[in-house]
Amino acid sequence: MKSEKFQKTFFLTKFSFKRDWLKLSIWSVVLIGLFVGVAAKFNGLYGSKAAIDQIIKTLKSPAMVSLFGKMPNGPYTSADVFASEMTVFMAIIAAIMNYYFIIHNTRGEEESGILEMIQAHAVGRLSNLTAALLESFILNFGIGLIYAVGLQFANLTGTNANGNFLLGLGLGAVGFMFASIAAVIAQLTDNSRTATILSYLVFGIMYIGRMITDVSHPKYTWFIPMGWVEKLSTYKNNNWIPVFMMLGLSVILVTLAFYLNSHRDIGSGLIATRPGRAKASAFLRGPISLFWRLNRVSIIVWFLGIMILGATYGSVFNTIGDILKTNPMLKQLLNTKAINAANVLIIKEFIAILMIVFAALALIPGLSLINYLKTGETKGYLEIIHSTRTSRTKLYFSLFGIATITSIAVLFAGIYGLYAGGNAVMNHHIAMSVFMRGFYGYLSPLLVMLGISAFLIGWLPKLTSLNYGYLVLAFFVQYFGKLLKLPDWTEKITPFGFIKHVPVSNFDVATFWWQIAIAVILVIIGYIGYRRRDLIIN
Amino acid sequence: MLNTNIPTLHVDHLQKNFGKFQALKNITFDIYPGEVFGFIGPNGAGKSTTIRTILGILRASGGKATIFGKDVFKDAVDIHKRIAYVPGDVYLWPNLTGGEIIDLLLKLGHSHHTRRTSQLIELFQLDPTKKARTYSKGNRQKVALIAAFSTDADFYIFDEPTSGLDPLNEEVFQNEVLKLKEAGKSVLLSSHILSEVEKMCDRIGIIKNGEVVETGSLDEMRHLTRTVIKVKTQLPTPELETLPGVHNAVMGNNQTLTLSVDSEYLENTMSYLSQKQIISIQATPPTLEDLFMRYYGSTNEVDRREK
Ligand SMILES: Nc1ncnc2c1ncn2[C@@H]1O[C@H](COP(=O)(O)OP(=O)(O)OP(=O)(O)O)[C@@H](O)[C@H]1O
Ligand SMILES: [Mg+2]
């Protein structure tokens, strides 16, 4: 009985690897390259005691704790700095990767009807789900092992084999934990879009939870599964318990996913699709309202989600912006006014770092909306629209318009969240105009990024996902550039690098206009290409 | 037939390449007002590609195509104001209901939900409150068909519209097409269901490997092909096999001979048979199926005919 349910699992797993090999290789190469590459640089970057002390001071500030997690107690070596800078970040990327593969290979296959074809053969009920989980297990622990071996070779000062394997396999375990979360959620909904949104919602809640507890009461971080990866205490205590906790939770979740899967019909979820209206509302009447209607749930979720994230970051402003906490001596040296000014400056510095986070998050829905011109085209949804009197011009600019508005609105939501959250906890309020400087500053790079997507749609529709890669690169350079002491020119390879440190410095009008000009040119060139090319179907 | 001299659709030596692959080599045909034109051919012959090119979704690599006298690519928007299209694979946004999609498609064509729309929903027995995600293939096709039929267009294009419909709905479809025809509209109907094409189409185009190999009415085409004859004669017919234009002569039970004859040799064959004292004879005109098999079959057969 038992084995019947799992018939042909290994065959399907092998098949998945064959089918996904390109994507799997790209993800693995990027992750391993990033992790091991950074590790290899670290002895040089943070070899000396002075350099370590310097960076530790930064990493211990509440602002950095909210981004990277809580530092263990000193003394510190290069290896400790590496572990604290990289652990949370790599866990986030692992979540994205696992969500993608699991949802695509389970609910996605089911939705497209492929699973139905497979299931008609002598294949067990649970085989496909098991195969997807096995694939992700091998992927995560494969990458984890290579991380560990890479760390052995990088030979950072202060490392030991136990710690190297703990960190590598710990990251593997957190990745697989996210895979099993997605596996459960994929059973609940009956389509992959909703499954993805819900999975990220769970991720977002855990992320915010770990951030708040890290800044205020680190021991509560134990209550948040995503926070377990921070408790590895790599190279200090080398605590393996979190790894087993993550594996334990994964086993529970996988069992739950199996249970749910065997108690539902193929193609359906536990959350059933309800019937809707028999006629379209007066509002649904053209491309813009259609794209809004199709995406409103994800746009609203994203908007509110980012606002809450902003408010959460804002709510730690009082801890961050309290210079006296880290340096009580200053009370004697400076008057209250000067201390306030110093506090505000720290907060502004923090906002400047957060700006890149919000800009990147704001771009995700925008890029995905513009790319619908291509995905909707290949999946066949737009064919019937193209046969109506709706012109290509209208489609192109409608989608570009709605994407731009969405991205700008989400950026604003993040900043407004920061403002509201920050001022709720601080005695000395920071004016909205200060926050708005950050907002204005990031408008132009946002538009350049959207323009690049529009250009790709027109001329290189097969390569539209390149822009996500570019965004990740931009994020990485801006976020880690200083910590990894990347050379200055790396900043200038993306439009974000030209933005002065807003809101610490003022919004630069000249940069704004030349970037807008580039964006406009890209959109126009893209339009010319889009108007004259074949539409892609299947 | 309401044949005026200005064709609704005019396709002249149309070509389309995908990279090196030549999907359309030479597509030439016209469709006139009041005419239902059947478009048949084997899988991958280029039917859908032709349709997408005349819709301006694909850009032709060579040749010319006009609808209402306008260029299909440059004036696509203008043309689309007066056409309705149902694609071969209907993809609907999973989170909208059928009713919403029908209305949206109508509004995109600047028309709206009328009594006729509700009537069609009734006729096709579609539940418009269901989300498209939950529709079966036939139901998805119905959504697109209802939107198309309730549009007041001059030219209707259907790419295998009935492949998912049950016989009842197929009949509804056929009735609606006949109404369009009576109203003087033009219809392009690509289909693999030969009985449907035979029943409804005034003229037929056969496409193979990216070329239109034959166009004409079914009657005209019959002349190009063989008639099947079942005959019983008093005297033996040993020379029959060697007569020009006679194929596949087989002796069945009770002395009945079945043979097919090229149309141009029909007279010749008949006079030979009448010398052998015919007891009974039965001639079946070729069905579209026979015609079709001839063109669909090996290339050799077409070559042989051309010789
Ligand atoms: N975008 C494309 N890129 C490359 N080749 C294509 C593309 N679209 C169609 N083709 C090829 O062009 C040929 C004609 O395809 P088309 O879809 O027009 O056939 P069809 O006659 O509609 O077939 P069916 O009866 O199966 O619907 C096929 O060989 C197909 O593989
Ligand atoms: Mg086709």
Automatic annotation (TrEMBL), chain A:
Query: What name is this protein filed under?
Result: ABC transporter permease
Keyword annotations of the record: Membrane, Transmembrane, Transmembrane helix
Give the transmembrane ranges. 21-40, 81-102, 132-153, 165-185, 197-213, 240-260, 299-320, 350-374, 395-419, 439-460, 467-484, 512-530
Extract the coiled-coil ranges from the record: none
Domain of life of the source:
Bacteria
Automatic annotation (TrEMBL), chain B:
Keyword tRNA processing assigned: no
Please name the source species: Companilactobacillus huachuanensis
Q: Which Pfam families match?
A: ABC_tran, DrrA1-3_C
Name of the protein this chain belongs to? ATP-binding cassette domain-containing protein
Q: Name one GO molecular function term.
A: ATP binding
Q: Per UniProt, which keywords does this protein have?
A: ATP-binding, Nucleotide-binding, Transport
Domain named ABC transporter is located at 9-234
Top-level taxonomic group:
Bacteria
What InterPro entries does UniProt report for this protein, alphabetically? AAA+_ATPase (IPR003593), ABC_transporter-like_ATP-bd (IPR003439), ABC_transporter-like_CS (IPR017871), ABC_Transporter_VariousFunc (IPR051782), DrrA1/2-like_C (IPR025302), P-loop_NTPase (IPR027417)
Which PANTHER family does this UniProt record tie to the protein?
A: ABC TRANSPORTER ATP-BINDING PROTEIN ALBC-RELATED
